[in-house]
Amino acid sequence: MPKVYKPGKVAIVLQGRQAGKKVVVIKQLDEGTKERPYPHAIVAGIERYPRKVTRTMGAKKLQRRSRVKPFIKVINYSHLFPTRYALELESLKNSVVAEHFKEPSQREDARKNIKKLFEERYQTGKNKWFFQALRF
User: Fold this and answer.
1) Model confidence over 6-46: pLDDT tens digits?
2) Distances in Å between the alpha carbon of 96 and those of 1, 50, 108, 124, 129?
3) pTM higher than 0.70, yes or no?
4) Which candidate, 17, 25, 27, 121, places its Cα nearest to that of 68?
5) 42, β-bridge pairs
6) Partners of 43 in the β-ladder
7) pLDDT-based confidence at residue 2 (cuts at 50, 70, 90)
């Protein structure tokens, strides 16, 4: 079976609290682990997308509307839907590892790091499609 979920691949979550949200695969574990004996991936996604901004808005309002609320999660392959798109975020790959899920404070730090990276990416205007909610 070909590897579908490579690091950087964009997917859509199908089940759970973040169903319908876009995620980026950070690390794939095709064979599973001792704790999770099923194929899964560590993903980072956007829980709350940035809101629409207009030219007439002030700097403070623009900054507030440009916020991104990310999440990091370990998700089973059967709950992910792969897309043809990919994001090239080299810094994302190093920011989250499996050990971050054991300690809540480490997980929080990783989430803050990802928030900074996503907001940076959004401000530069790259991959605009990734920062828009799915309409269906």
Assistant:
1) 888 999 999 999 999 999 999 888 877 788 888 888 899 99
2) 26, 22, 11, 23, 23
3) yes
4) 121
5) 27, 74
6) 25, 73
7) low
